[in-house]
């Protein structure tokens, strides 16, 4: 057995699915490695020492790059002072203040460790604020989606109508609607609008430009019925714009959840909103509390990460390098006759199969990309560490991958 195969066997023996994160479990071995052991800049190395130009970025959180100096130094500096205390640390206040400066909807902010956890908090706040029970979910909001039958179980995978492990009575309170499907949303409100606490929206990466008209329409509909509007900015925050889609499209929600772009890979999430809405989780309100919400290493990383964003036009870099990378790859697909297309806004587009083509072509391409030293996924990202020469080298490697397929 190869080293990679040995790791996969050990992972599957002791961890259901072979990973605590479903999307990280290798799907295209032997070309795809079972584990990664090191990262530097925009490159990662597997257990056998093979290098890959990385566009997974930890599935999104590594926005600046691996071992980014300012962030790593902030973590080391804070480590010498302590990790977690029995009282708030000044960093908790400072990072919350920065979020309130940068995010349009944020008048107050609180911290947790993962996006899904923060989304659960936002839903609880919405129910407490409105006194209503029903939630409408649009797009993939993490594994919490599985509360409602028929929604995304994982990206690109629909949950069954009856979800294992979820009581039918609870599942019945969670409804799903499609991105940019305003008619379906209107029908839900016509049927039970007075019982809907919130609409939770995660943008569709492939068709995110529809947000120009969809976000204003959803905002108007929620106001009409007295429901809250919650944005899932776990991916889009600090990537499409510093303040996420709410800044980019100019439509402000009542609550929003940020996570992947905050701390360059350190585990941190934030749920933010208006002072009035966030009052629901204040003293005398619904209790949302976590010992590790104010853990200082992640907050130090967040402070440093957001400083780099503000000072160096990180978002502009993600747009420019994203366009260079993904438009270049689309040119290769066309030239080689491969029926794939990278669609969406350049900082976080999605790989799509052209109509009428065999859906397996995407898996074949990812497998070939790994073979030639490029790490990709369904939604792939550039980071601030992807420079012109890295993009050129990645496209050269992917040209060989496309050649193998052709």
TrEMBL record:
<keyword id="KW-0413">Isomerase</keyword>
<dbReference type="InterPro" id="IPR049704">
    <property type="entry name" value="Aminotrans_3_PPA_site"/>
</dbReference>
<dbReference type="GO" id="GO:0030170">
    <property type="term" value="F:pyridoxal phosphate binding"/>
</dbReference>
<protein>
    <submittedName>
        <fullName>Glutamate-1-semialdehyde 2,1-aminomutase</fullName>
        <ecNumber>5.4.3.8</ecNumber>
    </submittedName>
</protein>
<dbReference type="Pfam" id="PF00202">
    <property type="entry name" value="Aminotran_3"/>
</dbReference>
<dbReference type="GO" id="GO:0042286">
    <property type="term" value="F:glutamate-1-semialdehyde 2,1-aminomutase activity"/>
</dbReference>
<dbReference type="InterPro" id="IPR005814">
    <property type="entry name" value="Aminotrans_3"/>
</dbReference>
<dbReference type="GO" id="GO:0008483">
    <property type="term" value="F:transaminase activity"/>
</dbReference>
<comment type="similarity">
    <text>Belongs to the class-III pyridoxal-phosphate-dependent aminotransferase family.</text>
</comment>
<keyword id="KW-0663">Pyridoxal phosphate</keyword>
